[in-house]
Amino acid sequence: MSETPIQATAGPARQRLSLGRFRDLALVPAILVLIVVGALVDPVFLSSANLINVLQQQTELSLLVLAESLILIAGKFDLSLESTVGLAPALSVALIIPAASHGLGTELPAWTAVPICLLIGMAVGAFNGFLILKLKLSAFIVTLGMLIVLRGLQIGFTGGQNLFDLPLSFTYLGSAQWLGLPASVWLAVVAFALGIVLLAYFRQGRALYAIGGNVDAARAAGIRTDRVVWTVLVLGGLIAALAGLLMTGRLGSVAAAQGQNMIFTVFAAAVIGGVSMDGGKGTLFGALCGVLVLGLIQNILTLGGVSAQWIQAIYGVIILVALMLARLTSGKAQD
Amino acid sequence: MSTATDLPPAAGVRLAVQAHGITKRYGRTVALNQAKISIVDGQTHGLVGRNGAGKSTLVSILTGLQAPDEGTVAFGGEPAPPLGDRDAWRGRVACVYQKSTIIPALTVAENLFINRQSLTGGSLINWGRMRRRAGDLLAEYGVLVDPARPAAELTVEQRQLVEIARALSFGARFIILDEPTAQLDAAAIDRLFARIRALQHAGVTFLFISHHLREVYEICQTVTVFRDARHILTSPVADLSQDRLVDAMTGEAVGLRQVADRPAVPDSAPAVLAVSGLGLADQFTDVDLTVRRGEVVGLAGSASSGKVAVGEAVVGLRRPDTGEVRVAGQLIRPGSVPHALAGGIGFVPEDRHREGLVPLLSVAENGTMTIADRFGRFGAIAPGRRRAAAQRFITDLAVKTDGPDQPVAGLSGGNQQKVVMARALANDPVVLVLINPTAGVDVRSKETLLDVVDQAAASGTAVVIVSDELDDLRPCDRVLVMSHGRVVRTVARGWTDNELVAAIEGMTAQSAGQPGGGSDAGSGGSPAGAADVNVDADVSADESSGENSGV
């Protein structure tokens, strides 16, 4: 057919595009405001020691949010990530340390700890994928069940004890400093950068949006939907295990309750950051902003001298308020 | 049964598609029984049949989504590729399904290049280049849509055009359109047909599936009828009378529905529904409407005319800014469905999938949802009484179902719509508001539904039919035509098709002799040249801007 004045639409196209970008940046003003508030509450807030502390404390959460966002964008759920944070390091360490330190008695060589830890995370993701995709079970209930099973396993074989006697290789990533910043912060930055590029500039990344947006259409477009979702679940488990590894290194032990109750914060950060619980919507940059907002709030509450007994209630209320504000600024219903 | 008046293809005629001896079973159900279809290259071929005739199964076999149990499919004389080779299938055939395969959260450009984003650059996605390529592609087919827009913002018409452009960009020269007109208004249908004709001139073959026989006569050269999983006949449309086509579809010799001859409503009949000064920002302004006892009033207009919004405001689905709705003198609280129901309004909403039915609930529960308070006290529901009520409407409306307990999702479209109609009638309304009451239903169900309208009117119900389907409007005593949110004309009973279509399109009757009139069946229409298409593109741009401000 003949040419049509398609150029006429180029102007508004650019405008709309920049608006789209803008929505991504919706939380940046909130972060700036929080920094100002923090500085007013306590001058210590702006010290590099405190800010690095905030970042390091948020690395594990941010990695979990990264994993959960990938899974949510693909239209699925994974609640069991928080238990993987505890189980993967606990089990891999237990395979190495002697029975006297609550090990399992297998006493594998110390270098295997890190690879086994990551493999356990992937295995959990793969098993979730099997139940959800092959047996067609509800992702919500499957991963809720898995959350309880994994936590129970960890308490079972550690006897509810914390594991202290860790190999050096295991604590390195969580405690090392690279170029003046904790290694874990660098890892999180790299992971997010990779994720953002993957989701924005790769066919495989865009497939997540297609699947989460309309799985039938994605299948009709030739996307191997089950394989992609499975891969994302395995990747999610891997990232959760990495988060567990970093947390273990930072704290110097594997706590019996490591990762417990993180999943609520993970979902809150993702949704505040604009990731839809219905799939197909949201960006990793937005999710990262969500993490930073929550991390700063927590830090400010601590610095502000809010009593430990009340901090949980206040933090919960603030998350609810943040959700309402995100709803107002994005102008769209959260689903 | 299958005494087909089938034409063996003449020598020298190239067949774009040939399917032969196709049988497909799902468990005990036979979806296709030795069915066949031959589509001549470069033609637009109609496929008609009542719901359940096997059309959808044929589509899934022709598009390679399913393999037939028996039989062969060939494209251009060569056997179809293996089922796993999606790329090969997509290079041969494309389908624009009733259910959109556009992903709303992504932009138009990304939808066009989904899962082959690398076509527009290296392994990294180059967004700028993808948008430009998408713009070129859309421009090539004269689709005036901004590629950077999220697909969720597209109108149904634009969405279809994007899907057609995407199909063509895969290199497919055979395109299946599965009921493409079901959600379009008359003007959009004309624009779609102009495009189909232009593409047909460029050598594209179409298989056109529709419930609207008039459209088949307008756009198709050949038509194939399926019934009860079998091929019944294939014939050039010019040689086939409308009555014979309907016979072939229904298997009985019945003509198209005759308009029941209700006596005119006397002026002395009391006004039951009185709407005055109704207005809603961006939708409609200052709408007055009075319907007498036993009167049927049509509300027609294009999709952007605001007619559906008026209907929804009357029944409480929307809250009007100004004006009032009175039923038998009693004021209905604006924007309240429960109050409208209590006031004696029954209604069929626009989209049965969205507002009409809860798919997993039973036929009985869906049909009696508006009157659940009548089956017991304090919210309790006596199952026996509900079943009895359901059994009554199943008989009255001839709903084809296993019984009141069958989930409504298992019914065909026509029978689902009957359940929606039953729900509308359940509270014995004095006012019945029907929005697109026969959308996407087969010929037979349409007759039943319109008969119900006649009966309701005869028993004194005031009926408002909101539609631009001429068949829906035929029972009306008068038709109010809306344009840009205002009632612009009233057409009295006894209108001709041309006259009403012209009024809806905002033309005078004299200038309506074009294919757009849609009434001169069998003429085939004049081939649309590039100039026509350009004009259409302008119109569609207007339309879309109207939609944006409207919805």
TrEMBL record, chain A:
**Which Pfam families does the entry link to?**
BPD_transp_2
The way this protein sits in the membrane is described as: Multi-pass membrane protein
Task: List keywords of the entry alphabetically.
Answer: Cell membrane, Membrane, Sugar transport, Transmembrane, Transmembrane helix, Transport
One cellular component term from this protein's GO annotations in UniProt: plasma membrane
Where does this polypeptide localize? Cell membrane
Which parts of the chain span the membrane according to its record? 24-41, 110-133, 140-159, 179-202, 228-247, 259-277, 284-304, 310-329
Coarsely, its chief localization is: membrane
Q: Name one GO molecular function term.
A: transmembrane transporter activity
Among its keywords, does the record have Chloroplast?
A: no
Q: How is this protein named in the record?
A: Simple sugar transport system permease protein
Organism expressing this protein natively? Goodfellowiella coeruleoviolacea
Automatic annotation (TrEMBL), chain B:
Q: Does the keyword Nucleotidyltransferase apply?
A: no
A GO molecular-function annotation: ATP hydrolysis activity
Where does the ABC transporter domain lie? 17-253, 254-509
Look up the domain of life of the source: Bacteria
Q: Where is the composition biased (Low complexity)?
A: 528-538
Which portions of the sequence form the region Disordered? 510-551
Show the InterPro entries listed in the entry.
Answer: AAA+_ATPase (IPR003593), ABC_carbohydrate_import_ATPase (IPR050107), ABC_transporter-like_ATP-bd (IPR003439), ABC_transporter-like_CS (IPR017871), P-loop_NTPase (IPR027417)
- The protein depicted here goes by the name Simple sugar transport system ATP-binding protein
Name the species this protein comes from: Goodfellowiella coeruleoviolacea
